[in-house]
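Q: For a teaching session next week I want to show students how multiple molecules come together into a single three-dimensional assembly. I've collected the sequence lines for a complex. Could you give me the predicted structure tokens for the whole thing so I can convert them for display?
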Amino acid sequence: MHEPRRRWFDDAAGPFVRPYAVTRGRTRSPGEPLDLIATVVGAAPSMADRMWLEPEHLRLLARCRQPITVADLASDMELPLGVVRVLLGDLRDRGLVRVSSPAPSEYARDEAVLRMVLDELNSL
Amino acid sequence: MSSTLFDRAPDAQPVALKILIAGGFGAGKTTLVGTASEIRPLRTESSFSAAGRAVDDTTGMDSKESTTVAMDFGRITFQSNIVLYLFGTPGQKRFWFMWEGLARGAVGAIVLADTRRLTDCFGAIDYFEQRGTPFVVAVNCFDGAPTYGPARIRVALDLDPGVPIVMCDVRRRESAIQVLIAIVEHSMRVKTGGFATG
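A: Of course. Below is the structure for the complete assembly, covering every listed component.
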């Protein structure tokens, strides 16, 4: 694909072309956006699944066979968060990825969890 | 942890929590994340047009106008199977669109203040006050910067009496950890009504 020269945001960012080719231009997945620290876990794709999956879907699925947060997944795969969310949305729609429950916000309200965090921080 | 996810043992899944760090350019967000946690590369989407508008909706984001920006992202993994994630974002109002998903479900937020540019905090403070996100103000004490006591900072920022102010030097690990402790304690008071010592 021939792309015209793009503007660069800054040295750390770079041109923004390839990631959205992966998602076919989609910048948002339908439905509730995944929390950055939602934990996802992937299933093994069947042969039929492999027919429609893009290489990036397969890479992503392979990486989330063990539970992993959305942010860690994006970091590990060196893909922008929005791209990872779109790809995860595709996989979730096909039942190949599940999102953890309870939601992160429930832990953040859980006094016992917060108390454990305090103990851990105090012992650092 | 109640769910059994596919064929995995329930205890394989760590408990993930997040703290948001907001602050103006150069206030020390990157330093705080780097001092307190294991720093990780992370990019998120931004668009040139959105950066100039005080909007939180990027639905119409056009890939041709978009780029990615690096976020400050770090992780502290505790032995108790809890992982604390830190996300740093610019504090100015024009970056609010980036915060929507970050603030939701967070333990709380740290507003990192530089006494040479206190006004940089206003946007972040407004945001967290409006949404009821528990937050602390951490005053990063730079060498040579004017030093004001917490009382003067509170007046200057027009802070509610319940909002903790922590003086810190985020280059020092123990100081950075104290800031994290302050927000967790404050969050416990606000969200669960629990009594946190210290």
